[in-house]
Specification:
By secondary structure, this protein is mainly α. The protein has eleven helices and no strands.
């Protein structure tokens, strides 16, 4: 199973990295990690330190970095990455604060850009408040499903791995790039995972409602406590 899991990573991802090394002289999978680190994460730190907007800080950093010139794209993005990392390590507390703010916006944001596709203004007012309530209810059912999975004590390591992957995706994509209503696209990656746990929670809630309706809820709770 491990070999089957690693095969597409080695062939597809490794093949793409080999292509990048031959084409742009870089083993990086993509230059977007360097761009996010420099333009958004480091840009957020510079914006907070200098009291300017994120856009202003981004323009300043891009001018400071200069153009590609005679170097390869790999070297250019490598320089961008290392400069962004230098800025973040010089201001670790501000970097963590920016990441935390982006994580909160990424998890709770409901300002979807879907409306713009239909020529409508972004969600606001009562519509956005209603979406926030629905999102909170979804998280609640999802959390209940996770609790039920933990109480079942079956395949816990597998569930821990899946939840860990979801948490990792959220954390690494949090930051200024997820703020201001831009975080939904990062959250959407893990929504299929959360939907499965929400489905488990919904199923268990339906069982409780049915037991309560039949007057057997107390008996079921007592039986479950005895079984433990």
């Amino acid at each position: 199973m491990v070999a089957v899991f690693l095969l597409p990573l080695v062939v597809i991802v490794g093949g793409w990295q080999l292509r990048n090394h031959e084409t742009v002289q870089s083993w990086r999978f993509s230059g977007v990690e360097a761009k996010n680190l420099y333009v958004f994460r480091a840009g957020g730190v510079v914006a907070a330190d200098d009291g300017i907007s994120l856009e202003g800080a981004q323009q300043r950093l891009i001018r400071r970095l200069g153009t590609v010139g005679g170097e390869s794209q790999g070297a250019y993005y490598g320089r961008m990455y290392h400069e962004g990392l230098r800025i973040l390590t010089s201001e670790p507390f501000e970097a963590v604060r920016g990441a935390a703010a982006g994580l909160i916006d990424e998890i709770t944001g409901t300002r979807s850009r879907v409306f713009a596709y239909f020529g409508l203004p972004p969600a606001s007012g009562a519509l956005e408040d209603g979406a926030s309530v629905l999102l909170a209810a979804f998280y609640g059912v999802c959390l209940y499903g996770l609790v039920q999975v933990a109480l079942a004590r079956r395949d816990l390591l597998a569930h821990l791995f899946v939840v860990g992957v979801a948490a990792y995706v959220l954390v690494v994509s949090a930051g200024p790039e997820a703020a201001g209503g831009r975080g939904e696209r990062f959250r959407s990656v893990i929504m299929p995972i959360l939907i499965l746990y929400a489905a488990r929670g919904t199923q268990q809630l339906c069982v409780l409602v049915r037991l309560h309706r039949d007057g057997r809820l107390g008996e079921a709770i007592e039986a479950r406590a005895t079984a433990r």
